[in-house]
């Protein structure tokens, strides 16, 4: 049995230890806000937090999870997290598929960089958005930083 | 209607300035409001207490309004823009509007009230606007008539606004919800007039999208997110060489594995079904499969490239032939250039997937499709059911770009669901999604021109060898060896060139080809706008002024050029190693010009600094969505132009994921400015695609300006730019 804490709930799961966390979240726990994009940790659609730190869950074996997992479903119930509010205010999502991963990456990033520079965004946020929402993503990250300062 | 002045309409931009910049019009209170589209967007039975007024509008007892959308939401904003058109006429409170997909099943049963429902070609606004305005106007008039009847006053004394009908002389008013039932049974003798653009109050406003909230919370249901009792999962492998088939497989090798339920043959491939997707995927990887690779085996991109070049010297079919091209070419010095463009994958973020639940009397399908109605009918045929027995629940699409117009994944999922008698969610891995794509056609395009005494080209001869999309899709429209996609942008160029010949050579390989954002314009604009740039340099004329001379008599194009010249600071000198290039192209009824600034390092690395885009789509429904689409189309075009090509080796696609088919990320994203130069009038152009075609030529022209090196083959990464002066 694998023990896993997700969004404050503890689970005992009878699954293969090598199962990637992504598929445990999606298919075992029904938390489909975390997305499958590439399966090789390149695109970031599967980003979740473990003990507050952003990780790409598609290549992380569930047995290797040491800490509490937070997914988009646990970030807020109603989209009221400042990063989500900033995303809405800037109308970031187009197709929206990658955005939950972008949001989880940004929440973790903003903890380390409460007043991020564009260079820091370029260097540390590497998620792919095929709709090309990067200009709005950038604006939303700065807006979220301002909201979180306030 | 005259031109809308750029100063008034022009709006910036990306980056950090948006705070407050869009705070005009109706403010939608964002996160605090109720969902404005449900997480499950698909059609559902009429909500309890709801009253339909026509097929598009449902009025709820609490005065909230459901507006149906018969197009697919793949990021382009239809679930916001199309309801705006209805609401403009209806006179409802925009903050109480909810969007919902129209039912493809009902469309069949009711003989097509929602039209084709196909979403592509940047057509949604263009084809839906008038009918949706009419639907909104019709409902408004009926609500007014219902109120007037109740009050026994003349209709003309009543007014509909903010989801109320009011009678000013008596100060009375009634909510839409109280009038809906009476209005629904009123039959109009004559449909009311619809508003003209000068009367719009909602259309033209930069309203927030209705689908943002469900997309930032993870609640939005994409096809891949569907869950239901007894659901099983399928992983699938189609023959790695397109057109090949399965010879044999050894199911015994995987049937004992944990969770594995079945191994099921599907057209050109095999699916492994398990209780979890991960288990299905692992078992598929362990399944020994022997393939019959078919006619494509042994082929390569190098061979295709030689073949397409050679085809340019063979027979061609005339798509246009004005005056005497041969004589004109013989009389002057001929400039000639060959442009080559690769196959491209769509690579939507959500890999293709489909969930199917089959019983003898009913088939339910959940997926994201650009073609809900056509796919429903295809699924019925496949399952041996009547179309009215098939329920296609369209989901949010995790990107489309043309790929989700033809649904190979649906065929596989229905095949598996029928075989195993359980609801199944079939998912393509990223690698399967890239390798089993239907790609942008490969093309070789040869341009020839000669100058007249006015130092402008007097003759242009275009010859294109390109894959036929219609043939690849098994359509029968290709009767003369020419198809519209192959020659779009060539046969109706905006430029005044008196002797024009366009020749088409349709040439297919075993690689399936299809619509890729902006279709034929995506490669044809590269050839045309690169060549015009080459001619300008040969004539010793500034490329923008050269185009201006060729566009005399085309005021809409000239206005776009004027705005581009001003906003890009076109004439301003650039430091060494940097360059500015431009292109202009009309696609889907919309003119887009772009100026791109690049810096090329001595090592040959291209950095794109800024893209200025000027757009004439006639009128705009939601300028915010327009700006988003231009940004999106620019990034999509830049990604392809800089990095991407699908190559074939031994008959199979070599690329499989974002490591060998890279994407632009934050660090490579230029500043993008979008400016509107709207010509108004009768023009309503599309917006999802026309931002893409100018990108590749403007980029290549900028690289030429920076380095003196002309790149005639995409992508740029193969261009060997190191050591430029």
Beta-strand level of the residues of chain B, as a percent range?
A: 15-25%
Largest interface: A-B, 67 and 69 residues
Distance between the termini of chain A: 44 Å
CATH class term of the largest domain in chain A: Alpha Beta
Helix and strand composition category of chain B: alpha+beta
Provide the residue-averaged pLDDT of chain B.
93
CATH evolutionary superfamily of the largest domain in chain B: Aldehyde oxidase/xanthine dehydrogenase, molybdopterin binding domain
Strand fraction of chain A equals 5-15%
Find the CATH topology of the largest domain in chain A: Ubiquitin-like (UB roll)
| Corresponding CATH architecture of the largest domain in chain B | 2-Layer Sandwich
Query: Helical proportion of chain A?
Result: 25-40%
CATH class descriptor of the largest domain in chain B: Alpha Beta
Radius of gyration of chain B: 27 Å
Count, helices of chain A: 6
Classified in CATH, the superfamily of the largest domain in chain A is Beta-grasp domain
Structural class of chain A: alpha+beta
Secondary structure: number of strands of chain A: 5
In this structure, how is the largest beta sheet of chain A organized?
3 strands, antiparallel
Radius of gyration of chain A: 15 Å
Helix content of chain B: 25-40%
In short:
With about 150 residues, chain A is an alpha+beta fold. Chain A is built from 6 helices and 5 strands, in the order ββαβββααααα.
């Amino acid at each position: 049995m694998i023990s896993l804490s997700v969004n404050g709930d503890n689970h005992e799961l009878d699954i293969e230890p090598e199962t990637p966390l992504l598929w445990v979240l999606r298919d075992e726990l029904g938390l489909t806000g975390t997305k499958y994009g590439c399966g090789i940790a390149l695109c970031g659609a599967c980003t979740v937090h473990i003990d507050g730190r952003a990780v790409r869950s598609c290549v992380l074996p569930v047995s290797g999870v040491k800490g509490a997992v937070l997914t988009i479903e646990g970030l807020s119930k109603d989209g009221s997290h400042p990063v989500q509010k900033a995303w809405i205010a800037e109308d970031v999502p187009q197709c929206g598929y990658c955005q939950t991963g972008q949001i989880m990456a940004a929440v973790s990033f903003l903890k380390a960089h409460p007043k991020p520079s564009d260079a820091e965004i370029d260097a540390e946020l590497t998620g792919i958005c095929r709709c090309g929402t990067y200009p709005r993503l950038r604006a939303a990250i700065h807006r979220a930083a301002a909201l979180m300062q306030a | 209607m005259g031109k809308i002045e750029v100063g008034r309409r022009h709006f910036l931009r990306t980056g950090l300035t948006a705070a407050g910049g869009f705070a005009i019009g109706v403010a939608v209170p964002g996160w605090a409001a109720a969902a404005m589209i449900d997480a499950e967007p698909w059609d559902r039975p009429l909500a309890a207490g709801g009253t339909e007024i026509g097929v598009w509008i449902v009025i709820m007892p609490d005065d909230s309004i459901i507006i149906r959308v018969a197009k697919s939401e793949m990021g382009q904003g239809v679930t916001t823009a199309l309801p705006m058109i209805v609401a403009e006429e209806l006179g409802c409170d925009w903050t109480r509007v909810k969007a919902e997909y129209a039912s493809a099943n009902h469309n069949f049963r009711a003989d097509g009230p929602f039209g084709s429902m196909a979403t592509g070609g940047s057509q949604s606004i263009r084809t839906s606007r008038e009918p949706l305005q009419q639907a909104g106007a019709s409902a408004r008039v009926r609500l007014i008539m219902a109120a007037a009847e109740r009050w026994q006053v003349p209709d003309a004394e009543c007014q509909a606004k903010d989801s109320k009908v009011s009678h000013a002389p008596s100060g009375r008013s009634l909510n839409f919800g109280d009038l809906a039932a009476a209005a629904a049974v009123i039959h109009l003798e004559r449909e009311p007039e619809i508003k003209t653009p000068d009367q719009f109050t909602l259309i033209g406003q930069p309203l927030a999208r209705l689908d943002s909230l469900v997309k930032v919370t993870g609640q939005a249901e994409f096809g891949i997110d569907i869950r239901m009792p007894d659901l099983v999962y399928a992983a699938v492998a189609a023959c790695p060489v397109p057109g090949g088939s399965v010879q044999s497989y050894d199911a015994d090798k995987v049937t004992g594995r944990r969770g594995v339920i079945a191994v099921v043959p599907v057209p050109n491939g095999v699916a492994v079904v398990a209780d979890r997707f991960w288990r299905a995927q692992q078992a598929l990887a362990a399944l020994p499969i022997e393939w019959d690779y078919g006619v494509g085996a042994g082929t390569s991109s190098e061979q295709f490239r030689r073949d397409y070049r050679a085809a340019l010297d063979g027979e061609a079919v005339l798509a246009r032939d004005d005056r005497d091209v041969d004589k004109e070419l013989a009389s002057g010095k001929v400039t000639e250039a060959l442009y080559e463009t690769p196959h491209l994958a769509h690579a939507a973020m959500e890999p293709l997937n489909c969930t199917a639940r089959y019983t003898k009397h009913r088939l339910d399908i959940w997926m994201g499709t650009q073609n809900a109605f056509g796919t429903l009918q295809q699924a019925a045929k496949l399952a041996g059911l009547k179309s009215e027995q098939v329920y296609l629940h369209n989901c949010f699409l995790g990107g489309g770009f043309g790929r989700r117009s033809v649904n190979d994944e649906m065929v596989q999922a229905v095949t598996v669901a029928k075989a195993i008698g359980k609801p199944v969610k079939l998912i393509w891995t990223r690698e399967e999604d890239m390798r089993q794509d239907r790609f942008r056609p490969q093309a070789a395009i040869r341009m020839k021109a000669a100058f007249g005494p006015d130092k402008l080209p007097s003759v242009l001869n275009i010859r294109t060898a390109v894959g036929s999309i219609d043939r690849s899709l098994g359509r029968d429209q290709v009767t003369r060896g020419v198809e519209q996609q192959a020659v779009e942008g060539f046969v109706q160029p905006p430029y005044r060139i008196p002797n024009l010949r366009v020749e088409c050579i349709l040439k297919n390989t075993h690689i399936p080809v299809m619509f890729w954002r902006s279709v034929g314009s995506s490669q044809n604009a590269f050839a045309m706008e690169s060549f015009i740039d080459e001619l300008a340099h040969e004539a010793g004329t500034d490329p923008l002024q050269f185009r201006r001379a060729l566009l005399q008599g085309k005021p809409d194009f000239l206005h776009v050029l004027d705005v581009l010249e001003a906003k890009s600071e076109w004439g301003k000198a650039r430091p060494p190693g940097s360059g500015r290039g431009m292109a202009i192209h009309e696609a889907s009824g919309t003119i887009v010009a772009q100026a791109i600034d690049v810096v090329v390092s001595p090592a040959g690395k291209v950095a794109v600094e800024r893209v200025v885009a000027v757009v004439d789509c006639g009128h705009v429904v939601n300028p915010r969505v327009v700006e988003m689409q231009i940004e999106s189309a620019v990034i999509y075009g830049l990604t392809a132009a800089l990095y991407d090509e699908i190559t074939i080796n031994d008959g199979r696609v070599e690329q499989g994921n974002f490591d060998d088919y890279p994407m632009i990320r934050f660090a490579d994203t230029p500043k993008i400015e979008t400016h509107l130069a709207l010509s108004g009038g009768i023009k309503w152009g599309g917006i999802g695609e026309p931002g893409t075609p100018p990108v590749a030529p403007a980029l290549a022209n900028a690289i030429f300006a920076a380095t003196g090196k002309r790149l005639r083959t995409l992508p740029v990464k193969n261009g060997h730019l190191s050591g430029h002066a």
